[in-house]
Design goal:
This protein is of the alpha/beta class. The chain is built from 6 helices and 4 strands, in the order αβαββααβαα.
């Protein structure tokens, strides 16, 4: 995230950005979120960790949060606990990887996407940035209301899709 943030700032210095940092105090977290309440003349882009402190319990309705770009499928790190789960589910039903890694990761993705659309009046865009999202094993985990999801192959195509969305 830090590297992406650094490169983004180099390429787009005119865009207002915020960066979640490790070990943020409650006060710093509150100040971070308050920035999304301020009427701004231009876009504010926040860089946060998937599944981190901003994944749940925040409510930025309306135009305070109109999009999210989720980079990666959110897989938990390989560790002893996840491997115990994987071994168990491999033995029980042959689905160790999905239960130990894929489903928990997708849960983080769904939580992050859920920050954008909080009510029937909200509109926004969720970008899923990882080629694995276009595979059947991930697409079958999408909620029914995501069936209109589109795969784009270039930045130019993405710009067209986003522009069309906001114009409609």
């Amino acid at each position: 995230m830090n590297e992406v943030y650094r490169v983004f700032r180099e390429l787009y210095p005119q865009v207002d950005t915020l960066l979640q940092t490790s070990g943020m105090t409650e006060e710093a977290r509150g100040e971070f979120l308050e920035q999304f309440d301020v009427a701004r003349p231009q876009t504010l882009l926040g860089f946060c960790v998937l599944g981190g402190i901003y994944a749940e319990g925040i409510d930025l309705r309306g135009e305070r949060l109109i999009g999210t770009a989720i980079v990666g499928v959110g897989l938990p790190q390989v560790n002893a606990e996840q491997e115990i789960l994987r071994t168990y589910y491999d033995r029980i039903n042959g689905a160790g990887f999905p239960f130990a890694y894929q489903y928990p990761g997708m849960n983080k993705v769904l939580q992050a996407a859920g920050r954008v659309i909080r009510s029937e009046q909200d509109r926004g865009i969720v970008l899923l940035i990882d080629s694995r999202f276009s595979t059947a094993s991930y697409r079958e985990l999408f909620p029914l209301h995501w069936q209109h999801a589109r795969t784009v192959r270039s930045v130019k195509e993405l710009e067209q899709v986003v522009t069309t969305f906001w114009q409609s």
